[in-house]
Amino acid sequence: MVLTKAYASSGKIFEQVSMRQAPEMYAQLRAVEPGEIVVVQGTYDHIEKLLDTIKVPFELIQPEAVNTHNGGRVMFVNCRAYDAGAPVKGVRQFVEEGGRLVTTDWALGLVAKAFPKRVNKVKETVDDVVEIQCTTDIARRFVGMNYAQCHPQWWLETSSHVFDIGQGVIPLITSSEMEQKYGKPYVAVGFPEGQGEVFHFISHLELQRTRLKTKEHKGDLAAFLEKMKVEKTDEMEEATVAELEAAFSTLNTLANLCVPVPILNTEMKSISAMTTKKGAGKSVKLA
Length: 287
Hints:
The chain is of the alpha/beta class. 33% of the residues lie in helices and 19% in strands.
């Protein structure tokens, strides 16, 4: 990971913040047992490294094992191309029976095959970093940072798959900057399916770089600790605020995706309001 120091420090920061602000979630993470979380090996993203950072046990399997695996409770599918032989049957059955599927970037192809008309690729990005907007309750909970002058960023790898969404798909995290550059704003989306739910993120959860766009982004570890109201420990290493925001937000997102309660099971009024705006997708009413 290019942001190795930022992720190492953010792991320690996440522990302090979650124990103070989200003790129930923290307790749920500590109670995760082997076999509950499954990670499908990818070519580029490495979600397993981030799970190690927040100390969540997982089972790592190969894509060809998905159709015969019991699936656990949450299945993370790392970025890789899925063409012929994609484990469509396995992921569809996993979700319909109540599992949570989380995919990144090129695994969009697997989602499109398993759940037709939900998402479709429209173009690719260049190596880029964009500022994101967290206008939904779920997005704010994922990112976990609510201080003034917080401007989280999302790294777009070269050839990340920009996508459009269909009926019932909920925009969770968006980027007006990405929409200006690539025509679509969707960074993270989700949709309920059967008894389960599906989440997809453009690019990777293991972010590789940021940009120093503002004065606040150029701040150091001490500045970020002050914003997050966290005490420095000996294990924390120096990084910029931009790097720490990116690392912390992805770790906190991952933690929320591991909890054993449905995420897409509320009325989400803020989502309804956001989806009526231009470029934010279709308005969705959940049962």
